[in-house]
């Protein structure tokens, strides 16, 4: 024991066992195979990044192409990353732009279902409306009409005078290829100028009645007229025909387009007679 050293204490704890520090693990050896795998992973990442960049560039070119159509400067190219394999987006054609504008301005009436519904409504409304009403102008009563009444009653001994119709002469009434005076039933002043037997006769297809006709000068026309009834889709018309062209030629000075005429009926010995007089101008 060295001099001055304290003797060991038998009761002091003995030192614990200390484990040796672990040695650092050696780095794995880089083999040729591991280096190839790592290089492949790098190449794969670069490949996907390149593809993503190409898609971004294509989207940018398509967007710039559409926006450039409304720009005043058409000469400038959109600044994008040049990609050899990428193709610039085509400018929308005029037909495509027109189609888009039509779709934006589409109205409800362009819809087929809407049109069908409107057509059905119109047809239903037409069924509910009666035949087109004719607004009659007031019957003219002047010296001409008074002279006719006096002539029929005093000189012809006629009776039962009735105003059949007051109408304006149209070009079709005076056309030679028509050869008839049209008297629509819905425009008659007095539909009861015919007897029941005469009405029944004219309702038969192809039937007619021969009637004498006095002209604007109160002179009996040399050739009698034929009164017939034509049935149309929505109405019926009484027609003076057969020698109508001859009657017009005999009164060319007064029977012109837009002349307002009156047709009167009367009876002589119960036989139907007609008279046509001019009472004014429609224009």
Automatic annotation (TrEMBL):
Main subcellular location: nucleus
Species this protein is from: Centaurea solstitialis
Protein name: B3 domain-containing protein
Record's subcellular location: Nucleus
GO MF annotations in UniProt: DNA binding
Biased composition (Basic and acidic residues): 26-40
SUPFAM superfamilies assigned: DNA-binding pseudobarrel domain (SSF101936)
This protein's UniProt keywords: DNA-binding, Nucleus, Transcription, Transcription regulation
Keyword presence, Transcription regulation: yes
Pfam families the record matches: At2g31720-like
GO cellular component term of the entry, any: nucleus
Region of interest called Disordered, as start-end residue ranges on this chain: 1-45, 83-126
InterPro entries: At2g31720-like (IPR005508), DNA-bd_pseudobarrel_sf (IPR015300)
Nucleus is among the record's keywords: yes
């Amino acid at each position: 024991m060295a001099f001055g050293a304290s003797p060991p204490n038998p009761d002091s704890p003995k030192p614990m066992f200390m484990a040796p520090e672990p040695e650092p693990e050696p780095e794995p050896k880089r083999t040729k195979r591991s280096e190839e795998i790592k290089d492949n992973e790098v190449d794969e990442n670069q490949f996907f990044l390149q593809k993503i960049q190409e898609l971004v560039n294509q989207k940018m070119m398509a967007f710039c192409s559409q926006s450039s159509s409304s720009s005043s400067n058409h000469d400038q190219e959109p600044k994008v990353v040049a990609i050899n394999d990428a193709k610039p987006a085509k400018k929308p054609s005029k037909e495509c732009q027109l189609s888009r504008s039509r779709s934006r301005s589409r109205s409800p009436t362009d819809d087929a279902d809407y049109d069908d519904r409107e057509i059905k409504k119109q047809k239903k409304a037409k069924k509910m409306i009666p035949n087109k009403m004719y607004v009659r102008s007031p019957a003219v009563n002047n010296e001409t009409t008074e002279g006719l009444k006096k002539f029929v009653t005093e000189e012809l001994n006629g009776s039962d005078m009735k105003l059949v119709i007051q109408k304006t002469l149209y070009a079709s009434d005076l056309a030679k290829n028509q050869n008839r005076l049209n008297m629509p039933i819905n425009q008659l002043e007095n539909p009861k100028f015919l007897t029941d037997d005469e009405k029944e006769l004219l309702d038969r297809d192809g039937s007619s009645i021969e009637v004498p006709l006095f002209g604007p000068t109160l002179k009996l026309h040399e050739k009698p007229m034929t009164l017939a009834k034509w049935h149309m889709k929505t109405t019926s018309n009484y027609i003076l025909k057969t020698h109508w062209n001859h009657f017009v030629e005999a009164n060319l000075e007064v029977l012109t387009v837009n002349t307002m005429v009156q047709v009167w009926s009367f009876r002589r010995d119960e036989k139907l007679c007609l008279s046509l007089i001019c009472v004014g101008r429609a224009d």
